[in-house]
Amino acid sequence: MSEHLGIVEILGVAASVSLLSGWRLYLCVVATGLAMQFGALPLPEHLAALRVLASPWVMGVAGAAAFMEFFADKVPWLDSLWDTVHTLIRPVGGALLSLAIVDPSDPAAQAIAFILGGGASLLAHSGKAGARAVVNASPEPFSNIIISTAEDASTTGLLYLAYAHPALAGGVAAILVVLAILLLVLTRRVLKALWARSQPWTVPREMPPD
Q1: Rounded to whole angstroms, what are the CA distances from 99 to 34, 96, 144, 157?
Q2: In contact, 9 and 164? CB cutoff 8 Å
């Protein structure tokens, strides 16, 4: 990573990490910490606050949580319960990660990063949770495992892409925003269709004879 990042690259990395935190907050923390430990992410001064993620204590706690999430996210309905519990945790975590990425000498930028980071994480979380609730309506259990594994792999890959190539981070964030919105729209349509099917047919009453 370049030692000097422009504001566009910094905001792109912050947005990407916040959005990915809406899917896998603990995996984001662990992956970022491991990359720092092994020198895969030579951080510039702007990102110095993120070095706390390489702490063994932080990585240990996040690793244990990521381990539990890995299995909980692959069990039908338990994944939805896990998502419900993390409705507040993920946006706050995403906001804090975004806050750590932005230059601490600019309070206005940090305030904006905190608000937008939390909003981006909530958007991604809502899309994920809604789509998973729809998948849980399917009688077979394998779709949960496939989708969850895809989320694990894509989160790790996109996180590394955002840090290793900051110039592409803005594009990654844009794709994630579009995907989250599409998931929300799809979830709304499916739930609306299921609701309509669950309603009893209304039969018009016959008019009494004159």
Answers
A1: 20, 5, 32, 22
A2: no
57-83 as b/e: b if 16+ CB within 10 A: eebeebbebbeebeeebbbbeebbebb
Handedness of CA 98, 99, 100, 102 (dihedral sign): positive
CA angle 167-168-174, nearest 5°?
Answer: 125
φ, ψ of residue 146 in degrees (nearest 5): -65, -50
pLDDT in tens, 54-108: 788 888 999 999 999 999 988 888 888 999 999 999 999 888 888 777 766 777 7
pTM above 0.70, yes or no: yes
Nearest-angstrom CA–CA distance, 66 and 60: 10
